[in-house]
């Protein structure tokens, strides 16, 4: 890995985000249609949390697993809001950081994505998959 390669080289910027007041059924639809595993939660442009596919699965399948999508959505929307599912105060990385900085953060924690911020504004995301692809391309 090149020592000072900018994070912007591998981060994704075309993000799908959700607001904390949205229904949980919107999360399900986003995960199912988008091929994504991490959805940043925003208030305006400010990052306030993140929801991973694992966070969503934790609340949605247990006792509700045999329902149709429509009845599952109704049940989840009745029981939860996005802010109940998200991880607040998530670890972030500044846009000016390096790929090495991201690798160190992801390697020292048990999560697989880092929202990229400028101040408190969300500008991208980098995942462990992005890092693996970067290394494979070296």
From TrEMBL:
SUPFAM superfamilies: CBS-domain pair
Domain CBS: 11-68, 86-138
Assigned keywords, A-Z: CBS domain
Cited PROSITE patterns: CBS
Entry-linked InterPro entries: CBS_dom, CBS_dom_sf, Diverse_CBS-Domain
Pfam families assigned to the protein according to its UniProt record, in alphabetical order: CBS
Classification via PANTHER family: CBS DOMAIN-CONTAINING PROTEIN CBSX3, MITOCHONDRIAL, OS02G0818000 PROTEIN
Protein name: Signal-transduction protein containing cAMP-binding and CBS domain protein
Organism whose genome encodes this protein: Rhodopirellula islandica
Upper lineage: Bacteria, Pseudomonadati, Planctomycetota, Planctomycetia, Pirellulales
């Amino acid at each position: 890995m090149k020592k000072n390669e900018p994070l912007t080289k591998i981060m994704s910027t075309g993000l799908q985000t959700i607001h904390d007041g949205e229904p949980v059924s919107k999360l399900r639809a986003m995960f199912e249609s988008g091929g994504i595993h991490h959805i940043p939660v925003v208030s305006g442009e400010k990052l306030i949390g993140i929801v991973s596919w694992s966070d969503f699965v934790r609340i949605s399948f247990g006792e509700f697993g045999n329902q149709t999508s429509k009845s599952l959505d109704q049940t989840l929307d009745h029981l939860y809001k996005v802010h109940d599912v998200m991880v607040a105060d998530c670890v972030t990385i500044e846009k000016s950081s390096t790929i090495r900085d991201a690798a160190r953060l992801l390697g020292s924690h048990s999560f697989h994505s880092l929202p990229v911020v400028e101040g408190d504004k969300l500008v991208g995301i980098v995942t462990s998959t992005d890092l693996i692809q970067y290394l494979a391309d070296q």
